[in-house]
């Protein structure tokens, strides 16, 4: 089981110095060693989750975790719920569809309500970029960003990094192609920052209409031709076309998009022979990825990504609540 990390031999750093953050809002806030620290913590949970039928650890017993999801989610919500429960927290889910948000309550009033219930940690997903940071500013407990608009999805990037590290052994010099609707993707924004910080060579591969301006600022090299972007890639990460965030037509048709940018077995052959295939889900089979590739027993890491999601979220919930729990070196 993860314990308070031992201080590095070469210095007198306390645990807190390894992760001096109250909230987890953006990968941009994290230094490379802070990312590595969270990956190491999660690695221990990944092993524990696989190894035992009884997965409970009660370090968050008596604490209340509120998952406030103002946008749809399957795996992120479920894995935050499982992660909190495995750590012994009382986990409460607030679904926006049935909440007073639908009655016109402002975001700040919702935040104040969550705060008044003495939550010990709040996990938030919201359709507006920056909304999670706004709430974090108003509440008295740590806040984890489970996705805000096009902006950030830090735990997704961390779980992707953990999956890559387990499969490829490290990041230095690794070529990672992030392909598809990069423009509307918070997953891509978090991943570009995270993987570049860890030493990978990151490529953003997208049609010109779906390429964010100044993608280089996020640590990626842009490619508008799929075949060029895939050449020599060690990891191919596919993204869904995020139609719900599109205002107008960005592609001629789903069929044409699949022909030019879909990951088929033929196209995957352009990447390295052992290239890993990833997708954050939900997948649109036959659009950005073919079923043969998505279900490939050795090359696809898609279910492992889901598995690592629970481990990463356990690590983040544990680390962010250490100060409140008075863990030595963190209080
Ligand atoms: C993504 C999201 O919601 O940002 N999914 C996820 O969290 N696993 C990607 C998407 O919606 O396409």
TrEMBL record:
One of the GO biological process terms: 'de novo' UMP biosynthetic process
Positions contributing to carbamoyl phosphate binding: 75-76, 125, 153, 156, 281-282
The record, for Gene3D superfamilies, names:
Aspartate/ornithine carbamoyltransferase
State any single GO MF term.
aspartate carbamoyltransferase activity
- Name the catalysed reactions: carbamoyl phosphate + L-aspartate = N-carbamoyl-L-aspartate + phosphate + H(+)
Enzyme Commission no = 2.1.3.2
Q: What residues does the Aspartate/ornithine carbamoyltransferase Asp/Orn-binding domain cover?
A: 173-319
Q: Where is the Aspartate/ornithine carbamoyltransferase carbamoyl-P binding domain?
A: 22-165
Q: Does the keyword Transferase apply?
A: yes
Q: In which pathway does it act?
A: Pyrimidine metabolism; UMP biosynthesis via de novo pathway; (S)-dihydroorotate from bicarbonate: step 2/3
Which keywords describe this protein according to UniProt?
A: Pyrimidine biosynthesis, Transferase
Question: A Pfam family in this protein?
Answer: OTCace_N
Q: Which GO terms describe its cellular component?
A: cytosol
UniProt entry tagged with the keyword Transferase: yes
Q: Which PROSITE patterns match?
A: CARBAMOYLTRANSFERASE (PS00097)
Listed binding positions for L-aspartate are 103, 186, 240
Q: Could you say which protein family the record assigns here?
A: Belongs to the aspartate/ornithine carbamoyltransferase superfamily. ATCase family.
Oligomer status and interactors: Heterododecamer (2C3:3R2) of six catalytic PyrB chains organized as two trimers (C3), and six regulatory PyrI chains organized as three dimers (R2).
Role played: Catalyzes the condensation of carbamoyl phosphate and aspartate to form carbamoyl aspartate and inorganic phosphate, the committed step in the de novo pyrimidine nucleotide biosynthesis pathway.
The entry's protein name is Aspartate carbamoyltransferase
Q: Which organism is it from?
A: Sphingobium ummariense RL-3
């Amino acid at each position: 089981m993860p314990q308070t990390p031992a201080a590095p031999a070469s210095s007198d750093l306390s645990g807190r110095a390894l992760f001096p953050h109250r909230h987890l809002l953006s990968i941009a806030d994290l230094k490379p060693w802070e990312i590595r620290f969270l990956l190491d913590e999660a690695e221990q949970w990944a092993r524990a989750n696989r190894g035992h039928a009884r997965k409970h650890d009660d370090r968050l017993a008596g604490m209340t975790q509120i998952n406030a999801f103002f946008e749809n989610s399957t795996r992120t919500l479920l894995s935050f719920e499982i992660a909190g429960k495995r750590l012994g927290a009382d986990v409460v889910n607030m679904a926006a569809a049935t909440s007073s948000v639908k009655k016109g309550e402002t975001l700040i009033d919702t935040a104040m309500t969550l705060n008044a219930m003495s939550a010990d940690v709040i996990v938030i997903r919201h359709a507006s970029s920056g909304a999670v940071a706004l709430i974090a500013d108003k509440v008295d407990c740590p806040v984890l960003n489970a996705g805000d608009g096009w902006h950030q999805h830090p735990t997704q990037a961390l779980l992707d990094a953990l999956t890559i590290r387990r499969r490829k052994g490290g990041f230095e010099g690794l070529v990672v192609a992030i392909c598809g609707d990069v423009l509307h993707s918070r997953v891509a924004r978090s991943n570009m920052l995270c993987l570049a910080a860890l030493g990978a060579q990151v490529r953003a591969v997208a049609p010109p209409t779906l390429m964010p301006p100044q993608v280089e600022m996020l640590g990626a090299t842009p490619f508008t031709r799929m075949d060029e972007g895939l050449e020599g890639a060690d990891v191919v990460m596919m993204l869904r076309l995020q139609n719900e965030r599109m205002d107008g037509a960005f592609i001629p048709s789903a069929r044409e998009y699949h022909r030019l940018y879909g990951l088929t077995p033929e196209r995957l052959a352009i990447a390295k022979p052992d290239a890993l295939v990833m997708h954050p889900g939900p997948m649109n089979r036959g659009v950005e990825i073919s079923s043969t590739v998505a279900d490939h027993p050795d090359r696809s890491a898609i279910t492992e990504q889901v598995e690592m999601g629970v481990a990463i979220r356990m690590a983040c919930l544990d680390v962010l609540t250490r100060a409140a729990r008075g863990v030595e070196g963190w209080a």
